[in-house]
Structure formats: structure tokens, C-alpha cells
Amino acid sequence: MQRIWILSELYFPEQTSTGYILTKIAEGLSEEYEVKVITGPATNFLNCEHHQNYEIKDGVEIFRCQSTLFNKDIFWGRLVNLVTQSISILGKSWKLCQHGDVILVVTNPPLLPFVALILKWLKNCQFILLIHDVYPEVLVAAGLCSSSSLLAKIGRRVSVLLYTQASKIITLGRDMTKIVKDKLSNNSSIENLSSKIYLIPNWAEHETVRPDDRDNNPLLQELGCSDRFVVLYAGNMGKTHGIKDLAEVATILQVDGNIHFVVVGFGAKKKWLEEYVKSQNLQNMSIIPLSARPRSEQSVSLNAGDVALISYVPGMAGVSVPSRMYNQMAAGKPIIAVADDWSELAEVVREENIGWVIKPGDIEGLVRTIQFAATNRELCVEMGIRAAEVARTKYSFAQTNQAYKKLFKEIFSISS
């Protein structure tokens, strides 16, 4: 039987985006292929859980590797985790992967694709690169290095090496596809870029997320803001997200008692936001830990907002595509996208007419947009209905699953 290995830092029982997404992809592929996963220690919301180092779940064999588990929001802790886990996964992969196997590897953490590259060179395994973040561009956008730094220059060279050596590349959006094509455009060894790159977007979880009546929303009742216009920020608050824009806008809109901000999530900037809210005594923002809302109950959180806010720092177009937007659409919420103009997020919002696009850093524009939405609730409802329909017809797991199966069918047919 044709065999697929998936290398991922995070996997079941992890419920944050990468772990959840890779778990669903593996289980979908297992309907037609023998699928095995090599991953790190079992975590849930990045907190350690007890699971066997080997188990079978929904037809997928899972091999867990041990590594350090320092705080991921601290740079050096994250770096040590990255190195130890990549070495551990390499050791396990070296023992288990065989000639002719096909590897699916995700770009997070950035050392993991080099494990697949080593296996290709030394064991003649093909690998497919699933891009969640584009390096080194994501490091530049996050302010971890400058575009002219030695790290960025090395990063650009090694990313081209990975893209060239991969049998196929999976991108999540049109902006990401453009960046990858630009990186490979000068490589004469690649005859047909279009056949090498597959655009397969993530999906909405229609089984658990759907539009619901906000008047009976438990979270709004718990917060005591059922009568207010709620701007919801749900998801990661990492270094590439525009959390300072969110905080500044909430500060300005304190004078409007009709508008309330609800933040559900985690990440490197969460502590900063909590301290800011406390220092400014912001009464119009509630911050809720993501771990307090299991993924199975996320429909409650996503239906607590009248409008969903997704905010990025500048320079993130093509570098990352937010998976959160699909579930927010499925919940029937219009989106305020604080994002670069040519990003996939901005393109979807505009072409489907399901919200507004604001440039990162345009505080006045964001304030005006939120105020406009708050005074035009019927328009928000209309946009939300369209968003839910778009999510249902264009972004289902069945469509994504079929695209992955088609890709692997092509890979195996070429190699046989």
C-alpha cells in the first residue's frame, strides 16, 4: 500500500490551528492511503497531556517524539524546543521512513522541512511542502530581523532550496502562491511552476460552527454585553498580529458605551494586551483564554460578535493566510480585515462583499469602520448571511480533502 508520512510539531490532541488542521488532513488521507504521523509530545492548547508515544487514532498511526517544552512565547524557549524537537523527529523518521515513501511536512517550525530534505537526499523519499508561513518574510514582519540582515539573506536562499527540492508545494492563498512563484521564477531547473504549486485553502468547520442567535449567546450573557455592538477578535495573538492597533482603537472608542470588544485567544502578545487593558482601565474590552472555550464549543465564541476583526501587522500579505477567517464566515459574521491590500484575506472580503478592508496602522480608518458597522447592523447581518453561504459552498473540508487526495494520487502515479 502506498505510504504517507506526515511530519508536524503539533498533532492530536492539540486543538490549536496547526495541530487540528494536520490531524484532519491525515485522517482524510487515511481513507485511501496508509498514513503515519511523526510528531512532538502530546499537548492541548500547548499544555502537556498524557498520551502514549504510539497510538492509532481514526486509521492513522501516531509516533510521538520527546523534546523540551519551554514557554513558546519566550524566544529562547521556543528556539530550544524547535531544535530538540526537530532532532528528535529526525531520529524517529530515520528509523521508520523507507525508500519510496512520500512525506508531507509543514513549515512550522522552520527546521522541520529540513528533516524531510535529509530524508529525500539519504533515503530517496519524496516530500511535499505545506506552507503555513513563508520564511524569512514572517520573521521580518514580526520584527525579529531586518530584510537586509544575514539571517534574512540565508533564509531566502534556503527557502528557495526547499521549494526547489520539494516534489510539490501546497500554498493556502493566491498571495502566498505569488510569493512562492516569485522565489522560484529564476530557477531554470523548474520547467512548469504551475504544476509544482497546488493552492489548497483551509476550510470552515461546518459540523460545529454555524450562525446562531446572538440574543441567547451564553458568552454575551456571561459578559453582560448582550445589548452592545460586539467586535470579536478570536484566535492567535502572535508577533505578526495587529494587537496594538486593536488596543489603540478600543482606547479611542471608550467614549462609545455601545461598542464592546471581546478577545478570545492566546499568543505572544496576549500578556501585553492584558497589561495594557489593566493600565488603561479599559472597560470596553473583555479578554478570555482560548483554553476556556474548547474547539467543540467555538461556535458560541464566534457567534458572540456582531463583526469579526482579523488584524495583521504590515508586510504579511502572502506570508500567512489566517485559517480563522473560514470559521468566522461559517458563523455568519462580516469581517473587518486589517491587512495588506493584496492579501488573500483582503481579496476574499472584497470579492465576496462580506466586510471591510483597512490598512494596518490606519487607526482612524478602523475607528470609522467600526462606528459605521455599529450603526448599520442590518448591513452586518446581510454580509454575515453572504459570508456563511460562501463558507458553505467554497470552503468545506470535503473540498480540501478531495484536493489533497488528488495531489497524492498524482504523486504516486508519477513515482510508480
TrEMBL record:
UniProt keywords, alphabetically: Transferase
GO molecular function terms noted in the UniProt entry: glycosyltransferase activity
Record-linked Gene3D superfamilies: Glycogen Phosphorylase B (3.40.50.2000)
Domain Glycosyl transferase family: 227-388
GO biological process, one term: lipopolysaccharide biosynthetic process
Top-level taxon of origin: Bacteria
Stored SUPFAM superfamilies: UDP-Glycosyltransferase/glycogen phosphorylase
Protein name listed in UniProt: Glycosyltransferase family 4 protein
The organism's taxonomic lineage, starting at the top: Bacteria, Bacillati, Cyanobacteriota, Cyanophyceae, Nostocales
